[in-house]
Every structure is written in C-alpha cells, then in structure tokens.
C-alpha cells in the first residue's frame, strides 16, 4: 500500500462512524438499521467525499476505492452508476495526480469518450496532459477507437523515452495500417529491446504471416542479438510455426563503435 493512503477497510469504518453519529444525533437509535445493511448510504457518502477537494487526498482515494469495488455489484449499484461515471469525469481533471490517474484508468476500461478526448489532447499538447505520455498511451491502447494511432506514430518517430515508445507500438497494435512500421521496429537493432518485443507482439496479433517472415529474417541475421532471437523463436513455436533457422547458442558479441543511445 502506498504511503499516505487509506485502505478501503479504514475508509469504510470512517464512513460508518459518521453515519452512525448522524443517526444518533437524530434520536433514531432504536429504529436505525445497522450501517452494514445500508450500502447505498455508504456509496452516497463516498460520492460526496471523493469530489471534496477540502478533504485529505488519501481519504478521497479511499472513497474512490469503495466506489470502484461497488461498481462490480451491478444490481445494487445500478442506480448510482451514471453519477459514478460523471464523478470519474470530474476527477479526471482533479488537482491530485493520483486521483486523475485512477479515474482515467477506470474510464479507459469503459471506453469513455471524455477520457479518450482528454488523453488524446494531452498527447497532442503536453501542457494539457493529465497523466504522463506513457500512461496515456497505455490507457488508449485498451481502446480500439483509433483516435490515438496518428499520435502514436508521431511519438514513435520523435520520442527517445523507452516507456513512451513501448506504449506507442502497443497502441499501433490495433492499427492494420501500421504493420510495415511495426515490422521495421521489430528488426531495428538500434531500438530498445523491450520496444522490439512489444512490436513483435503487436505485429503477431495484426498479421501472423508478416510476423513469421520478420522473425525468420531476425533468426537468419548473424549480427542480431541472441536474446531477441530466442524471443522470436519462442513466439514462432507458440504460433505453431517452426523456424527454418533456430537461434544459435548465446555468444559474447564484441562492442560496436557508434552504437545508438537507444540500444539496450
């Protein structure tokens, strides 16, 4: 658990105590139902707390965790679901960065138009970004809407950050027009190893035949890295494709002069 956060159990206890105090003050002790039997009251309280910027951020995150768990209880939570989504959209632009991330995470799973728009705007205009570029791309990668494909292409051309590049190829894994680009990234020996692996996964999903041809080219390239060869050979085997040239035993490769700074 992150330092400074409030667990769901602790937050629930806080809300239950507050609700019980209100009931006592209303002189309803004799007729009040047990707090545990009134989840709607707890969820409504959480909806109030999570958007209250005067409260401690850790408590607000605890409130959001309560709501996230409740959202899986479809029949009971149904009456609050629309308000919950509206609340998440408000939190997506909150001053607290962790609340923004949590809200956009949930909204991205819902393929929410508002979240998609905000994430895309943040990638186009960094000054408007609600989360880091790699995080935004990771969220958009779950959405096959296609709005982020052009941005992912641009970031793959411009960014030297490994995590941004890795997420960019994952986004392009839903873009059939990006097959040639993914093929090139997969073969690029100056590219980050993890980015090459991510591009291999993306290309294999888009076009197994093109992936198999690219993998075979890598296996036949004596200058390529042995760990990359082992990765693509394993992927070919899992795809029930036997490479004509199996990866050779690992050997110590001499260092090359002028190696790209992206090579890892």
Entry summary:
With 264 residues, the chain is mainly alpha-helical. It contains 14 helices and no strands.
Task: Characterise this structure.
With 264 residues, the protein is an all-alpha fold. Helices cover 61% and strands 0% of the residues. The chain has helices at 8-25, 39-50, 57-70, 74-77, 81-91, 97-109, 113-124, 133-140, 149-158, 162-172, 179-187, 193-206, 208-220, 226-238. The longest helix has 18 residues, at 8-25. The two termini are 31 Å apart. The relative contact order is 0.06. Mean pLDDT is 83; it is low at 22-35 and 249-261. Pfam families: HEAT_2. This is HEAT repeat domain-containing protein. It comes from Burkholderia mayonis. Residues 236-264 are annotated as: Disordered.
Low-confidence stretches: 22-35, 249-261
Strand content: under 5%
C-alpha Rg (nearest Å): 25 Å
Q: How would you name the oligomeric state of the polypeptide chains in this document?
A: single chain
Number of strands: 0
Largest sheet: none
The proportion of residues forming helix, as a percent range, comes to 55-70%
Mean of all residue-level pLDDT scores: 83
Give the helices and strands as they follow along the chain.
Answer: HHHHHHHHHHHHHH
Rough outline: elongated
Q: State the end-to-end distance.
A: 31 Å
Number of helices: 14
**Class per helix and strand makeup:** mainly alpha
């Amino acid at each position: 658990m992150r330092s400074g956060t409030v667990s769901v159990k602790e937050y629930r206890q806080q809300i239950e105590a507050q609700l019980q105090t209100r009931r006592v003050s209303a002189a309803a002790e004799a007729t009040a139902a047990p707090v545990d039997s009134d989840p709607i009251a707890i969820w409504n309280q959480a909806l109030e707390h999570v958007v209250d910027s005067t409260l401690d951020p850790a408590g607000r995150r605890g409130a959001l965790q309560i709501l996230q768990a409740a959202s899986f209880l479809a029949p009971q939570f149904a009456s609050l679901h629309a308000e919950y989504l509206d609340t998440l959209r408000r939190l997506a632009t909150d001053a607290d960065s962790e609340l923004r991330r949590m809200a956009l995470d949930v909204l991205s799973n819902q393929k929410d138009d508002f979240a998609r728009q905000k994430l895309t705007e943040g990638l186009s205009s960094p000054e408007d970004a609600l989360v880091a570029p790699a995080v935004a791309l990771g969220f958009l990668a779950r959405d096959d809407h296609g709005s982020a494909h052009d941005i992912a292409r641009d970031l793959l051309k411009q960014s030297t950050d490994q995590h941004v590049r890795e997420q960019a190829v994952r986004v392009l894994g839903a873009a059939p027009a990006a097959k040639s680009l993914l093929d090139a990234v997969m073969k690029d020996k100056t590219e980050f190893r993890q980015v090459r692996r991510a591009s291999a996964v993306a290309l294999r999903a888009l076009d197994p035949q093109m992936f198999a041809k690219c993998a075979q080219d890598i296996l036949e390239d004596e200058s390529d890295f042995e760990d990359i060869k082992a990765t693509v050979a394993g992927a070919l085997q899992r795809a029930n494709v036997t490479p004509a040239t199996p990866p050779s035993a690992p050997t110590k490769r001499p260092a090359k002069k002028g190696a790209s700074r992206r090579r890892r």
